[in-house]
Amino acid sequence: MKSSSWNYAKESFRIESDSIREAFEYIDKGAFEQAVNALGNADRIAASGCGHSGIACRHFAHSMCCIELPARFLSPAEAVHGASGYLKKGDVIVLASRGGKTAELIPIMQICKQKQVTVISITEDMDAPLAVGSDIVIRMHVEREADKYNSQGTTSFVVLSAIFDALQVALLEETDYREEQFALIHPGGAVGKRLNQ
After folding, report:
1. I want to staple 192 with a disulfide (CB 3.0 to 4.6 A). Which of 45, 89, 130, 187 is the partner?
2. What does the pLDDT look like over 10-53, one tens digit per residue?
3. What are phi and psi of 106, to 5 degrees?
4. In what order do the strands lie in the sheet with 92-96?
5. Using H for helix, E for strand and C for coil, what is the string for 65-126?
């Protein structure tokens, strides 16, 4: 391995860890509280994004299910071909896009507004169409991506995932979710073994 490769790997850890610390300073407590309240009171939750954001959204939907808040990932492509029928008045959707201009998400937002589905967006650009059209906006901040070209979805994926994790742990507290509940739905693996001793 090139010595430069090792140096870039080391630098990646520094960039991403610094970015997570900095990202928290850009999150408005009021907006975060609104998001927690909306998600905690939602009948059902959906999450949608493209690329790395979409992968993070899949994780978020699973995390919601782990605290018994019914959720699913909504494919941007499928959403505009009928899958948005999953959503009804009283539901909440989270749309994630660093730039806030992802073309595939704008029609989903418009559908949700017409169906009276609460729209939460997570984006860096507060003036972007996604932020302007959403009911609640959580601002993300990424100083730079970890790769040398500043173009791969590295740091932005980590920061978005950290925001999703923060929402989950806040909801776990807000809903008084108990470990015994998780033990029931997670009997598998090492975690399940520990919880069900």
Report:
1. 187
2. 999 999 999 999 999 999 999 999 999 999 999 999 999 999 99
3. -60, -45
4. 71-73, 45-49, 92-96, 118-123, 136-139
5. HHCCCCEEECCHHHHCCCHHHHCCCCCEEEEECCCCCCCCCHHHHHHHHHCCCEEEEEECCC
pLDDT computed for residue 188 by the predictor = 87
Q: How confident is the model at residue 142 (pLDDT cuts 50, 70, 90)?
A: very high
Q: Average of pLDDT values for 102-108? A: 97
pLDDT at 190 over 90: no
Single-letter code of the amino acid located at 96 = A
Residue 59 and residue 41: Cα distance in Å, rounded? 20
**Residue 84 half-sphere exposure toward CB, CA atoms < 13 A:** 23
Look up the pTM and report it.
0.95
How is domain 12-195 classified at the architecture level of CATH? 3-Layer(aba) Sandwich (3.40)
Burial of 115 by CB count in 10 Å (0-12 exposed, 13-18 middle, 19+ buried)? middle
Give the amino acid at 9. Answer: A
CA atoms within 13 A on the CB side of 169: 5
Q: Half-sphere exposure of 26 toward its Cβ, with a 13 Å CA cutoff?
A: 20
